[in-house]
Automatic annotation (TrEMBL):
Functional description taken from the UniProt entry: Component of the post-replicative DNA mismatch repair system (MMR).
Bias (Acidic residues) ranges: 533-552
GO biological-process terms attached to the record: mismatch repair; mitochondrial DNA repair
Any coiled-coil regions, as ranges: none
Cellular component GO terms held in the UniProt record: mitochondrion; nucleus
UniProt protein name: DNA mismatch repair proteins mutS family domain-containing protein
GO molecular function, one term: mismatched DNA binding
Stored Gene3D superfamilies: 1.10.1420.10, DNA repair protein MutS, domain I (3.40.1170.10), MutS, connector domain (3.30.420.110), P-loop containing nucleotide triphosphate hydrolases (3.40.50.300)
Keyword entries, A-Z: ATP-binding, DNA damage, DNA repair, DNA-binding, Nucleotide-binding
Family: Belongs to the DNA mismatch repair MutS family.
Comp. bias regions, Basic and acidic residues: 553-570
Natural source organism: Kwoniella pini CBS 10737
DNA mismatch repair proteins mutS family domain ranges (all copies): 850-866
Amino acid sequence: MSASIDSAKTEETVLTPDAELSELNKAIATGVIPDSPLSREVYINWLRFPDCILLTRVGKFYESYFEPARQLSSILNIKLAQKTYKLANTETESKSTKSKSKTKETERKFPFAGFPVAALDKYLKILVQELGHTVVIVEEYDEEGSIAYVGKKITAATGPKERRVYRVVTPGTMIDEGWLDGNESRFLLAIAMNDQRAVVDGDATATLSLAYTDPSTGEFFTKDTFLSNMEDELARIAPREIVLDRSLRAAWQDDAGEPLRSDESSIPGLFKLLQVLGVHVSFADPSRPPPLWATGVLSPDVSVRPQTTENVAIALLRHHLQYALRESMPALTQPNRQVAESQMQIDAATLQALEIRHALRPGGLVAIGERQTISPVSSRGTLLSVISKTITQSGHRLLIRTLTSPSTDLDLINKRLALVQSFFDREDLREEIRDILRNVEDIMRIIQRFRTRRGSSRDIWDVGIWIRTIEGIIARINEEIAYEIQNYGNRAKSEGVLRLQELTRTFAPLGELATKIEESIDENAILWNPAPDDIDDGSEDPGEAMLGEESDLLDKKEAKETKKERIEREKQEREDRQWWILPSFSQELQSLHDDLAQLKKERDKLQADLVKRFSTPQLKLVKSVRYGYHIQMTISEATKVEKARSLERIGGTSGKIAYFAHGAWSALGAKTEIAMETLSMAQRRAERDLRNLVIEQADAIQVNAGLIDELDLTMCFAQNAKEMGWVRPSLDNTSDLNIVAGRHPSIESSLLQSSRSFTPNDTLMTRSNHLHIITGPNQGGKSTLLRQTAVITILAQSGSFVPAQKAKIGIVDKVFSRIGARDDLWRDRSTFMLEMVETAAILKHATPKSLVIMDEIGRGTTLQAGVSIAYSTLNYILNNIGCKTMFATHYHELGRMLGYEDEYGSPTKKGKIARKGVEYWCTDVDEVDGAFSYSYKLKPGINHKSHAIKAARLAGMPDSFLHTAEHTLKYIQQTGRFDPPAEAISS
């Protein structure tokens, strides 16, 4: 939700018919609106959606009227126009004389603003995407109940059959707007609360269910979780809009702007979190729609029927989709249930600290339009940006989901690694398939357009092309398999061949659908046929329809008439291309095409006979807006015809052209028009049949699309491994974490750009040495080591090769980090408090199978308090959790507190200490002749020197500053006192 837009007010206001009529009559009687059919429609919709941007379709424009027009004009910086209308004569009765008198007819003006239909996408991006408004689109419908495209003639005289709300556009209900980024999912998330509370890691918290979908692709997921985990879930899902139960709306409005309570597992805590994140919030009543299982929106498969709370979440989601999409509401497929135990859990702080997806500006709050939100400034340098070598947009979306939620299923991980290995070993095959994928459409967005009744004829053709492309990929893989078996018989049962065979056998057969599409569609007509909205219908100018006045096309200027005649001629030229479904599709179409062809022959013969009869080679049989079906010829030819008195001249002349009526041509033209309309209706029925064929196979197409995404993802991983020298990790269910010569992919990539090399390091952990304390100088690479260990673990469980010489990794269930210094002012947290909150979350939620990386715990307070906090953290992990932990610190005193045997000398053998499970490692600097450099290489032991003043020198501190710092440090080290005398500093 934005700070300036109350999403709770963007719902439809339900009024009784009597109440609507009363308000409408009052507005007309007081002169607020003119008394016309359109003004009545607009005003009623304004009453129903008082806090939304209302756009009403009038011909080739979307228009806004009355006070909402002022708002639209101001937001979009478009012209605000005025139209004058007259108030009807009324009679008034004088109270004093009881006499009746008539008031003079008066004039008033109403404001309006609008823009062409073709500009809708552009302005929706501003209104909805950037500013978070809700936009209500009222469309015109023709006599067949279909949306009237611009090219279909609808004038103020005939009028559309009706206007009604077509869509309510919110940030989470975008479908196929041209500016949508196909690389990003746009999830609409519904949250259903459970009255029962659960105890999680010692704390009571509410249980809830999540249901989320991307309306543009149809991807649909559900997950059960806890209210205390919502910040992490929101970071993972990144929803564009959240739907809550309407019963929470009053609490939302009461809580807005209130300080955050300390208990974030409370409902107010959730509300404040949503406000901080800038998420658009809507409300729905799940009891209003029909029963979930009786609507056909979700298949009533009892075996996978969701539990009660999940059912409510799906109902909330479905209700809001119906509210927003209306008759374009797609059928929801069976949800993909996300089970927490099957996924590595990465909390919000860790996703940010590791820069998995976004590189965030400190503080993170930026202004977008009228609202503030946490927004990524850039993705440059993130893990995603470095390894993203997917070809398709849907493959990129899968990559994002995989990196933010890796698997813990050992079998699934190893299957993906095997496929990556297959493409790693077969470079030619990989490159060929990647080249093929460059021409693959985002098929699930196309299928979703069919599910929402928006698919075009080109979309049908693209489905056929997509199927044939996928068949080509399968054939190429099978060809590779056959070649290897024939030439290298020992590979027949190799892991690579078996995995490729398993993949190709999983694809659903769709060849029959592709064949039907190819046999039904004229490719040339599809490629040449313009979109209906590209055709000018010559309808009235903006604002005219509001007054209910019929525009007289016959009174337009000659230039307008010429334009219309040009349009008619262009339509004639397009006539042959409009029949994009081949006559062979059905016997009905073939018969109608034959009839139309016969009528065209009769037309050609009639024209030839007239040309011959009057000796007028320029004579043509045409149709225009002004004259209907008529004959046109040159002025010189017309003189001969008029002398013979054989034809009746109509109208004047247009340049060098004269016009004549002809009864036979009028009759033939009328028959042709009827035949074309009949054929057009038959083609629409055939198109509907083709659409239904595609929809019938939507589930199979979705399966194949998922396999192509998996193919794209694994080839991306293989490409990374080949280009960057990564190795295949070995995973098991132990607690070991053995990484030899590990590297941080993002930092290594950055260094390579400046021809520098990355210093690799080992991380070797087992049950007996699961906690590593790492000391060393500032800027010495401690934080990089922590991050790279976590990133390598995430990559491995994503099914990717990893940047190391060797890696053996036991499955990790959760990754936690406490790295970096920042505050959280929105939630009234200082840097130190935020550190404590994140540390507390780690100590509560980490398990023995978790990986924890912590940097500088205890800073931001006194030395004694900081050391105490750091020691208590380590002690708790050792005694109560026992998870793999990397703890970077400058508190070398921790070594003594944990039993490190040699305080200032060399470490004991291999860094072993009395405290079980702990090892000590450090980095250092190399000094030669007064110059120094960071070694970055990890070695056993504790480094008692931070070399902070050296780092300050590199940062460019003034010499006097460095002199004071060096002498002060020396004095404190020698005396242990923190009150150095002036002579000690100046000596």
